[in-house]
Amino acid sequence: MREAGAGVIVIAVGTETTRDDSVPLDGQRVFTSDDVLGLDAMPRSLTVIGAGVIGLEYATIFATLGVRVTLIDKRREILSFVDTEIIDSLVHQMRQNRMTLRLGEAVCGLEPVAGPKGPRVRIGLESGKQIVTERALYSVGRTGATGGLNLAAAGLAPDERGRIVVNDRFQTAVPHIYAVGDVIGFPSLASTSMEQGRLAACNAFGVMADSVPELFPYGIYTIPEISIVGESEESLTAAGVPYEVGKAFYREIARGQIIGDNTGMLKLMFHAETRQLLGVAILGEGASDLIHIGQAVLAHGGTVDYFINTVFNYPTLAECYKTAAFDGINRLE
């Protein structure tokens, strides 16, 4: 085994798909997200086990391609960190796309079987249900790719999912060793991981650096796309903050009609008294791009009036901000 030494070390090895020895993963009949591009054919039916971000992304992609998808997860709620109304809309659209959701259901068995139309996979649920599907995507999370690092030699120990614990400066328990990205856990996004790497390097070498983690935008590439930044209705309610909501639907906007997205929506949360913008949630085409307009206003402590007083190009989806702002202000009055 090779050894490496340095005054400062940053661990950024990412993650790998979580595997279970009891699951007969073969890369084709039962596969993980890492195997998708190697599939030999498009299945007619697919069961996705795990409704995390990756499981949802692939479930909606396959469903959009015409595959009959069943989604299983032992949790009754999906993506609990996302605004509930946005998730409700996503779930509605998934069902409209002929997807079957088995939430609150745990898998107790999975085995390849022979069928009259070829090989199949039989999945048993603890509730007694059985699902027979052409293929199964096993997506129950990711594990830190730390297995080959010999962390013990450096005085570090990962948790049960291979992740490394860090402080707010991204330092591990060993002060000159830092860790960033997916290997430290949520939110496990490429964008946030890059920012964590920048901050870790600055902290390691005493360079002043500012960042606002509470304003990190999250992009979830389901179909339709989701992006959020700032507070949600649930977090504001839990904190006892008086707030109001403004909404705009893509079907109300010329660009939404042009591109044929009649289901997208943009939602603003703002303080009911000061009108300060508190959060933005978007579902639909271009959500992860549109979110940055709201992110900029949030970063500068702006109010919902910014959108009312600003002219947006026509026809663009950005006009949703103005429509949503008018909707919210009208609710106040």
Report on the structure:
The chain is 26% helix and 25% strand. The strands form five sheets. The chain has a five-stranded parallel sheet with strand order 3-10-4-5-6, with helices on one face. Strands 13-14-17-16-15 form a five-stranded antiparallel sheet, with helices on both faces. Strands 7-8-9 form a three-stranded antiparallel sheet, with no helix packed on it. It folds into three domains: 122 residues, FAD/NAD(P)-binding domain (3-Layer(bba) Sandwich); 62 residues, 3-Layer(bba) Sandwich (FAD/NAD(P)-binding domain), CATH 3.50.50; 118 residues, Enolase-like, domain 1, CATH 3.30.390.30. It is of the alpha/beta class and 333 residues long. A hairpin with a 5-residue loop joins strand 13 and strand 14. The chain contains eight helices and 17 strands. The mean pLDDT is 94.
Write the layout of secondary structure elements.
Blueprint (H helix, E strand, L loop, with lengths): L8 E3 L3 E3 L12 E2 L13 E5 L3 H12 L3 E6 L10 H13 L3 E4 L3 E9 L2 E8 L4 E4 L1 E4 L3 E3 L32 E3 L10 H15 L13 E3 L5 E5 L2 H7 L3 E7 L4 H6 L5 E7 L5 E7 L3 H13 L5 H5 L9 H14 L1
Parallel strand pairs: 1-12, 3-10, 4-5, 4-10, 5-6
Antiparallel strand pairs: 2-11, 7-8, 8-9, 13-14, 14-17, 15-16, 16-17
Largest sheet properties:
5 strands, parallel
Structural class: alpha/beta
Estimated share of beta-strand residues: 15-25%
End-to-end gap: 69 Å
* Radius of gyration from the alpha-carbon trace, in angstroms: 23 Å
Order of helices and strands: EEEEHEHEEEEEEEHEEHEHEEHHH
Mean pLDDT: 94
CATH architecture of the largest domain: 3-Layer(bba) Sandwich
Q: CATH class of the largest domain, please?
A: Alpha Beta
Outline: flat
Total individual domains = 3
pLDDT < 50 stretches: none
CATH topology of the largest domain: FAD/NAD(P)-binding domain
Tell me the name of the CATH homologous superfamily of the largest domain.
Answer: FAD/NAD(P)-binding domain
- Helix share bin: 25-40%
